[in-house]
Design a protein that fits this description.
Length: 291
């Protein structure tokens, strides 16, 4: 049997390690990694072109509800893990010496909102709307590297950045060291509106001292990562996939900080999208899920 696993970035390494463990099991299960982001993974699972993959909130929730870019509710998407790895807060980066002090100050400014199709792009539009600057016209979508280069060159005024707080971030460190940066969060009403429109987001406080620039904690919203799977895959297969995931996650977390602090109890906790029966069976056996 071959499972098609959709992933990007560090998640490709997770897919490979789970695949290696399954290939050594009996009978072996092979994993083919497909480079694909959250919306593509969910659409691929629904159409049968992908078997499992990474689904960053809010995309699994929007798909399950048939909202946003999903014109109708999905029927085949289930979960292997409701939360895996560290949440990724999204904040705004601006020049430290500039006049921008809040998201409301972005009106008319040159703003980078992520790659097209990224969760960052989706969330930035919601946050701008909640702040009353939904008519912001000077939005750019390009690669993160290109955006940081333009910020350094004075060609962009602000970046919406989503990243975990554990992993090194050399690009932000370069901006800090070469031009100086300020990190902005969002007021309570803006965070509440974002979580209402994009279910699955959570509130996170970025601690004082982050990147050596934060003088006070900053409140923001964060993505969480889920492992999504097709509902009609056999229970025994997904039980083994879930088992392989959790038997390898600690070692992966030592190599890649974004996977540290993964907790099976949080992964098994009830969310809008149900667990696959094979995953639920594994969590019950290890005591992470109570009926």
């Amino acid at each position: 049997m071959v499972l098609r696993f959709g992933a990007v970035g560090g998640w490709i390494e997770l897919a490979k390690r789970v695949g290696a463990a399954l290939a050594r099991s009996s009978p072996p299960i092979l994993v083919s990694v497909i480079e694909s982001g959250s919306p593509g993974n969910i659409r691929g699972i629904e159409s049968g072109q992908i078997d499992l993959g990474v689904g960053a909130s809010p995309f699994p929730e929007l798909a399950y509800l048939g909202r946003g870019e999903f014109s109708k509710p999905t029927t085949h998407v289930r979960l292997i893990a409701g939360i895996i790895g560290i949440p990724e807060p999204m904040f705004i980066v601006v020049a430290r010496g500039g006049a921008i002090r809040s998201i409301g100050d972005l009106r008319g400014k040159r703003v980078w909102a992520g790659n097209p199709g990224w969760a960052t792009t989706r969330l930035s539009k919601v946050l701008l709307g909640a702040a009353g600057v939904a008519d912001q016209k000077r939005i750019e979508n390009s690669t993160y590297k290109e955006a940081c280069d333009k910020f350094l060159a004075g060609m962009l005024d602000a970046l919406f950045v989503g990243t975990d707080l554990k992993s090194p971030n050399p690009r932000l460190e370069k901006l800090r060291d070469e031009v100086g940066i300020r990190i902005l969060g969002y007021d309570t009403d803006i965070r509440a509106e974002a979580m209402k429109k994009l279910p699955g987001l959570i509130e996170v406080t970025i601690p004082k001292g982050f990147l050596g620039v934060l003088e006070e904690p900053v409140a923001t919203v964060a993505f969480v990562h889920r492992i999504v799977v097709r509902d009609d895959l056999p229970e025994e297969v997904i039980y083994r996939v879930t088992k392989a995931l959790w038997e390898n996650i600690d070692a992966l977390g030592r190599d890649l900080p974004e996977f540290s602090q993964s907790d099976p109890r949080k992964a098994a906790a009830k969310t809008l999208v149900p667990l696959h029966p094979g995953a639920a069976r594994y969590y019950r056996e290890m005591g992470a899920l109570k009926d």
